[in-house]
Amino acid sequence: MVDHVEAGYQRAEAITRRAGRTYYLASRLLPSGGARAVFALYAYARLADDIVDEPAPGITIADQTARFDALEAGLFSAFDANAHIDLPAGEADVVAALADSVRRFAIPTDTFIDFGRSMRMDLPGHPLFRNRYASFAELAEYTYGSAAVIGIQLLPILGVDRDNVETTAGAELLGEAFQLTNFLRDVAEDAARDRIYLPADQLAAFGVDDTRLMANAAAGHADSSVRRAVKHFIAVNRDQYRRAAPAIEALPHRTRPAIRAAARSYSAILTEIERLDGDVFSRRAVVPMPRRLAHAAASLVTGLK
Predict the structure, then answer these.
(1) pLDDT digits (tens, 9 = 90+) for 26-72
(2) 196 DSSP 8-state letter
(3) What mean pLDDT is predicted for residues 184-196?
(4) 300-304: long-range contacts at Cβ-Cβ below 8 A with a sequence spacing of 24 or more?
(5) DSSP 8-state assignment for residue 121
(6) Fewer Cβ neighbours under 10 Å: the N or C end of the chain?
(7) What is the per-residue burial (b if ≥16 Cβ within 10 Å, else e) of 227-249?
(8) What angle do CA 178, 73, 186 make, to 5 degrees?
């Protein structure tokens, strides 16, 4: 298990560096133990997401579901430090590292049940499957497990007691803000998977329905109605970041810069979408690395004052 754990942390860091560049850069501002725990959390979420979103050729829905069930079962087995983890080597290493972080930081294990529920909502054919959402209230069922619980999982790593109601609520809100930014950035990719996460009632207010959005995706260009809807969601998203800001500033001095940097870099994606005039289908909005580095530096300097 010891070899699994250390190999898992190394693998988790490599996964985060490759696939979660904003998280990786922000995590480097944390004390080393905290950074490794964030890498483990991210890598597990990435493995789960890849099973759901990027199945290998020839993989059936049943195979996808079985693989995710096995990954989740492997994690819960790993919470027992002496248990055998029945997973492929790479996955076994990551869940061993994550289980180690769960024990070290007392990360609440029930949050992984909520996370798993949301992942199954992305699995076609599963009883929980959803690929359209009528309202933000309906979407909240998904984003709680896919995003809000990530904020809860981070709290002990950041040195915050979960009983701190205001900071916990802020962490959940910030997780949901990151998720809405992802939805806006990835509208085209999600449409290619026949998913629309943006709530239908909000889109309808701008004359956008399922057919229109999918036609825009197929054309690779957003029309004026879709662009107006996107700008509305940007305003909603920015309000989420604004309301989460006090919770960030309430974090302990040593861990605050990392979350401040992540929030700055993620919210900057919205600025990149605005540079495209809300055309989320023409190309994917990406914050350049020099700007992310500047956010990290600025957050660190601010934290030292």
Answers:
(1) 888 888 889 999 999 999 999 999 999 877 777 888 889 999 999 99
(2) B
(3) 96
(4) 300/29, 300/257, 300/261, 302/257, 302/260, 303/253, 303/256, 303/257, 303/260
(5) T
(6) C
(7) bebbebbbeebbebbeebeebbe
(8) 25
CA angle 37, 41, 42 (to 5 degrees): 115
Per-residue model confidence (pLDDT) at position 288: 55
Report the predicted TM-score, pTM, of the whole model to 2 decimal places: 0.91
Q: What does the block give as tokens for 271?
A: 């600025």
List the beta bridge partners of residue 132: 196
Give me the numbers of helices (H) and strands (E) for the chain, helices first please.
15, 0
Residue 265 CA: distances (Å) to CA of 124, 150, 233, 273, 291: 32, 17, 18, 13, 8
Tokens of residue 89, six digits: 């080597």
The residue that leads in pLDDT, 206 or 29, is: 206
Instruction: Name 120's Cβ contacts closer than 8 Å, sequence gap at least 6.
Output: 65, 68, 126, 128, 129
What is the phi-psi region of residue 31: left when phi exceeds 0, alpha when psi lies from -120 to 50, beta otherwise? beta
Measured distance CA(21)–CA(27) in Å, rounded:
10
- H/E element, 46: helix 32-53
Average pLDDT over all residues of the chain: 90
Question: How far apart (Å, rounded) are the C-alpha atoms in residues 105 and 97?
Answer: 12
Cα(214)–Cα(162) distance, integer angstroms:
41
Contact 52, 118 (CB under 8 A): no
End-to-end Cα separation, the chain, in angstroms: 42
Length of the chain in terms of residues written: 305
